[in-house]
Amino acid sequence: MTNSRTSEGLVAHRIRADVRAMHAYAVQDPQGMVKLDAMENPYRLNAGLQAALGTRLGAVALNRYPGARVQDLRHALAHYAQMPAGYDIMLGNGSDELISLLALACAVGTDPVTGKRPVVLAPVPGFVMYAMSAQLQGLDFVGVPLTADFALDLPAMLAAIADTQPAIVYLAYPNNPTANLWSEADMAQVVAAAAQTGSLVVLDEAYQPFSSRSYLDTIRAQPQAHAHVLLMRTLSKFGLAGVRLGYLMGPQALVAELDKVRPPYNISVLNCECALFALEHADAFAAQAQAICDERKRLLQALRQLPRLTVWDSDANMVLVRVAARAGADAAAQVFDALRARGVLVKNVAKMHPLLADCLRLTVGTADENTLLLAALEASL
Prior knowledge:
Blueprint: H1 7-14, H2 17-20, E1 34-35, H3 47-58, H4 68-81, E2 87-92, H5 94-106, E3 119-124, H6 128-136, E4 140-145, H7 154-164, E5 168-172, H8 184-196, E6 200-204, H9 216-221, E7 229-234, H10 236-240, E8 246-251, H11 252-258, H12 269-280, H13 282-303, E9 309-311, E10 318-323, H14 331-341, E11 344-345, E12 347-348, E13 359-363, H15 367-380
Parallel strand pairs: 1-11, 3-4, 3-5, 5-6, 6-7
Antiparallel strand pairs: 2-8, 7-8, 9-10, 10-13, 12-13
Helix pairs in contact: 4-12, 5-6, 7-8, 14-15
């Protein structure tokens, strides 16, 4: 028997083997760096709005559990997103919690006849939490590789859906870390295929503030064809990454069932009040999003003038680049380290998936931050 009287023994005896084999989500140390690694909105509130928010938060009843104010936030988000008729909305402590709750709601264990577990399916490379949440809740994850130019591999997606009959199909729109929107015609075929297998489709629009399209327009135009579709967004990219608030919209019957696994009081009174304040000043955040889109255009143009870089178009607040490798060199790691030495922190995604070999992901920052990034990149290349 394992000796569980030591902490090491307890780990071996009580912690799941698959959890022990996992790596924790890594957050880079940004101390003293130009922070362009996490797709955050780089702009803070102006002094007047900061003071107004501080006064408002100071009046919040911290001694009480969240109550009716959370309902006010649900209504405000529904109005802001122009939620379709017949839909309801569910809040999460960031999209990460919503992704975990979706997996929990669909985790029915192993089929006694086939011996198979429910499947979560998504294109890869994609957001890492889809696979992680599936694993932690006892579901299998099936990743369907994108094409070399990061488009949906439609035949492979349709075949995988038919073969695995997944519980959940995730489609990030635009995708992370590739920052692109997929063909609307391809999306429609995947959504229709999932309907045939009784699968939920979750459209993850985390980067909607910077995107040229939203799939919500298609849902509104064809509600009957999307009775199995949920749409997820977050206020992190809106400009409130520190507040941790995500929301999920979908047909009322579906959301009512999913809401049963949501922990009570999962949205704090401070999260709630911050989000309500932000929505009341949505024009200020929209101006920030437009500034980021303008900077994204400038950044794309400048990056394409630099040597050794392949640069992809973006519908998000990030840009994916590939560094041309030199003989025997890990190009992405080399340039990542050189940027870090020059005080600029980006994300090295080269090891995330074979399709991302030699790739770095650059967050779009302020004009000054992007100028520093470009100068550091030029020197590093």
